Amino acid sequence: MVESPDLPLLPYRIENGVKCFELVAGVVQQELLPGLFMQGYGYNGSIPGPTIVVETGDMVQIRVINRLPEPTTVHWHGLDVPNAMDGVPPFEPSPLIEPGYGLDYRFRIVNPPGTHMYHSHYETIRQEMMGLGGLLIITNRHERHTAKDFAYMLQEFHLTGLPKGELRPGIYAVDPLSDGFNFFTMNGRCFPNTSPLYVRRGDCIRIRLANLGMQGHPMHLHGVQMLETAYDGNEIPPWNRLRKSTVFVAPGETRDVQFDAWNPGRWPFHCHIPHHNSNNFTLPAGGMFTTIQVGD
User: Fold this and answer.
1) Within the chain, which residues score under 70 in pLDDT?
2) What is the four-CA torsion angle of 19, 117, 159, 41, rounded to 10 degrees?
3) Measured between alpha carbons, how far is 40 from 7 in angstroms, rounded to an integer?
């Protein structure tokens, strides 16, 4: 069972054999740190949006309702879908979703199990950087090897009105056109507001990583080595897998890693770019950082 810490899984209902989901795009106030919110664009009340979990062979319908003050679309990043369902107007026949309207994206999941994303593909310089994205994961119900399966969306934002080096409670606007990022998130939160992962010693653990932002993130795990098992939703053959302590996730990419949790303790897992480990350039550890507790 996939878990996306601090994010819900998107519920669905089955109608005539079709898995039916609903995404609502709207203005969202996302709590990065206790009392500190950013106002951006999200789905179903969160940035990133809820995680969609499907299986190969599923017929899905994802109804997208637009409650934004502007048109939008959804692109199913990495999925092989019909041209009209790909969500990139005006280059494809997929239509815009005007404010107050909805659109049913309907397609069969033909990709093998893997980690993917969904995000706006209309005026992306604004809408992606305002937060419009989420995880889409194709699982394998017959897999038994992995005891825990975690998924993270990596994002960065520039919040305005907050002096550099200060953290004050409040609601701050996102400047999507700035590349001077001051907050770096894992599933929409900054450390120490990220939820720690708890795993049992000896278990095989998977972590899925997706990068929807502008900057690359070398994700580093303390205490054990990671085996890189997939990229962009495609499995790496066992004879080509590399064992690493740091895995680089470039913009637009996904990476899957696995490790055996043999070493007990509380271990940091974080981006290794120093500025990405702070909250608005304050000195305590923050940003794209969480911990993994390995115990009995």
Assistant:
1) none
2) -30
3) 16
Picking from 94, 113, 142, the residue at the C-terminal end of a domain is: 142
Based on the fold, state whether residues 104 and 190 are members of the same structural domain. no
Around Cβ 43, how many Cβ atoms within 10 Å? 27
What's the CATH code of the domain at 36? 2.60.40.420
The tally of domains found in the chain comes to 2
36, 37, 38, 44: CA torsion to nearest 10: 150
Helix (H) or strand (E) holding 146: none
Residues of the domain holding 227:
151-295
Per the CB < 8 A criterion, the answer to whether 43 and 30 are in contact is no
Boundary (domain end) residue, out of 117, 142, 167: 142
Q: Where are the beta strands (DSSP E) in 16-166?
A: 18-33, 36-43, 52-55, 59-66, 75-77, 102-108, 114-119, 133-139, 148-157
CA angle 266/272/274 to nearest 5° reads: 110
- Where b means 16+ CB within 10 Å and e means fewer, 132-145 reads bbbbbbbbeeeeee
Amino acid at 149: D
The whole-angstrom separation of Cα 278 and Cα 282 is 6
What's the predicted TM-score (pTM) here? 0.97
92-96 CB contacts, 8 Å cutoff, 24+ apart: 96/71, 96/72, 96/122
Quick one: tokens of 6?
Answer: 């601090």
* First-to-final CA distance of the chain: 20
CA 2 – CA 286 distance, rounded (Å): 25
Is residue 155 located within the same domain as residue 289?
A: yes
What is the token pair recorded at 275? 């500025």
Percentage, residues of the chain above pLDDT 90: 95
Distance CA 73, CA 85 (A): 10
- Give residue 145's pLDDT: 82
